[in-house]
Amino acid sequence: MTMAQPVIGREREIAALRTAIRDVDSGGSAFVVDGEAGIGKSSLVADVVEYADSRGVRVLTTTGTLDESAEPYAALHMLLYPLRAGIPSLPAPQRRALDVAFGVEPGVQPSPLLAGLAALTLLSDAAAAKPLLIVVEDLHWVDTPSAWALRMVARRIVQDPIVVVMSTRNTDPLDEPGLRRLHLAPLDDAAAAELLDTVPGAPTGQARRELVARAAGNPLALRELGLHGPGGRPRQRPVVGRVEQEFGDRYAELDQPTRLALLAVALSSGATAEEAAQAAGRALGRVPAPTWTDRASASGLLEWVAPRAIRFRHPLVQSAVLAAASPTERAAVLTALVHEHEDEPTRTIWWRAELATGHDDPLADEIVAFADARTAMSDPFVAGRAVERAAELTSDPAVRVERLIVAAELAGLSGRTSEASLLAHRASSEAPDRLLAARAAWVAETLPTGRTGLARGDLGPALHAVSEMQVAGGVEHATAALLHLAAIAWDHTLEPSPGDPMLAVVEALALPEDDPRSILLAARTEPVVRGDRVLELALAAAPSAEDEESAWLLGYALNLVGEIDTARVLLDRALASMRARGELRTFPQALMGTSMTTYLAGDVAKARLLAEQAVSLGRDLGDAGFSAAARCALAWFDALDGRQPDVDVISGGTEVGAQVLRSSAMRATVLGSQGAAYLVTGRPAKALERLRCIADPGHDAYHPDFAVITSPDFVDAALDAGRREDAEQRLADLEQLHARWHAPLVRTALDHVRTALVPDDELATTWAAVRDARWSIPYAKARTLLRLGRRLHAAGRSEDARAALHAALALFGEMPAPAWEERTRDALRATGERLAVPGRRDELLTPQELRVCTLAGQGLSNRAIGEHLFVSPRTVGAHLYAAFQKLGISDRRQLSDVLGTE
User: Which of 262, 266, 618, 758 is positioned for an S-S bond with 626, CB 3.0–4.6 A?
Assistant: First the structure.
């Protein structure tokens, strides 16, 4: 880290960082300091480090380097190395994740999700002993897995005595909750003049004014450009480019041995003076004299770091050296470095890839193996670059196109959409056969370019590509693609029944009927026509679905055809496995599917928590579309408490988010949420207006599945608004549907509507039937009991009315659904019953506090709860402390009594 220099003109930023350090015992905070090269980020960080030291805060640092940007978990390893003694005490999955990531034991590199959670736990443990300042310099050069994990940590330390400061040249506006941006703008003229007063030998008079103008407020430029005259370089060049050119000119003036040694340092970050001299000597034929470091230091390019290490004075020096070196010199030094490190193939793989000319199949295979390892650890950026280079080195046309397709997929996953599109089209144009052409077309169609059929809500082009794969003999590729499409179709199509256009393609695959993949595709394409058969097949296969994939496929299939109990068991099993592995590809969709199934099963608190985790994961992944879908799910739960959805908030203000909200399922979710919120706040006519659209085939929000799910709301709104004929029509529609589809979801909706419309003279027998019946959807039963209780009271059967209303109140309380609980209490008061102030103390808790307390009541430790909820143990402790204060208890053993935890 750069030694502290006078920090001038940054009073606001210094105050913010020092305040965070001073108040660290009250909670954590995270900052991203951004600005152009030389703007003073390192000086600001050095200041806060000195201040932290003076306050007794422990400092942990890591720095991104160009050379290690392709080395997985290099930056995280550097940061956590001082805490390595605490790794053995981590939960087993987290301990193994760090051991594998840091090379302690062999294995597949962990995903950043799991590594980040392990880092969070380790840092939280360390902070319990002494507050921490975590410094991450040059985030733009930090390897991708480390950067992902570090950002995840930074967003989750609000309850821990930890301050995170990350510096980066990336000046894009920050949109990450939990991270505060400190943008360093150029210094004004007064601050620039004050800084020059601290520089020995700084010019005066007209030369000083010219220097201030040339430097454009960049502190590094003020220091460096003053050492040489203005020269003849054009004024319009960006200031960073002028400083870099200045360093490049100094490099060019050095003798060749010194230049080559500096180039070796630039190409192999971390090289010692002796290693750089050996590489230069091998390239040149003679080893530079030891004084080469003195010449480089005298030129202001190199500096010594205790005890005997060297480094560039500024990252711009490295980029200047790399830009100024001739191709011949670069090739000579790369060749020398490969020879010097010939026993480290992983380290030299990029050097060898750069040196290779023409086709080199063995090297291409080696690069692909390297890429596979990076893909396994969820680093699609480096993996994609590697596979792309491997494709260029591959002689076989079919293998080359295969690798271009993989490179396109990985580029898309890493957010390099334009490059991915170019790679996919190149693969398509070079494809030697129909299967490869179809696979290239599939990749191109699934990229978020905004110009694809999927972007317009049209599944046709994607399905054509899948069909082409199948016809060309690529059944496994076609099946995998179709399963992916089945998982994302709900928020990528304007079709109310997204499975309809898939049907012909699914049938052409001719998978065995009892294959879990076939069962899921049947559930997606024909939930009504084949719903009963899907139920039969999935329930038969469920007992043996112990592995993650089968549990996910069968659980999701049951979810789609309206089965709840077994679906929840299977989805919980799959989700637990994905969570333990840190899986990232399917895990987000699994969170969403399990959230809805959990809600239908009656656990609203857990369902909301899963949706909140999905929102958080969407931020971690940088997936604006998925985040919007997850926020839409949260809006559904907010509506139960009477809160109207805010479409702008849900979309996140992004076009991608807005596009997701135009899909049929999302439009239905928004309208369903609006209807539910209006209904619980006593505005049935407005609720009916919204809910009617979902069941109207002529409306763009028409969605048959959501029409079933929202039937209790629709019927209650219709009856309360005096529109009995609408309720009777919904009954007829459901009876017609149930004759073809016997799903528990449909049956429950039908039971509610029938009960709501039962004649007054059948109320007593209806109450007797409903009272002890087990319904698949507790929320629907609670709503049924509430309406039934009101009608019993109106019919003069007060005792039965109170019994029904108390049963409804108990069900609403278990979910919980506070707004509906209050409406039920109002109904009980109307019967003449005197009710005390609500006695459920857990109503005082936030959803996260309630979930933490529930898990603690089941006997889980803080660490185990943190692992389950992706938060630090300290955060768990903070939630428990707040909950104990609200509940009036002092021991977690009392939680089961207060909450009724089983």
Answer: 618
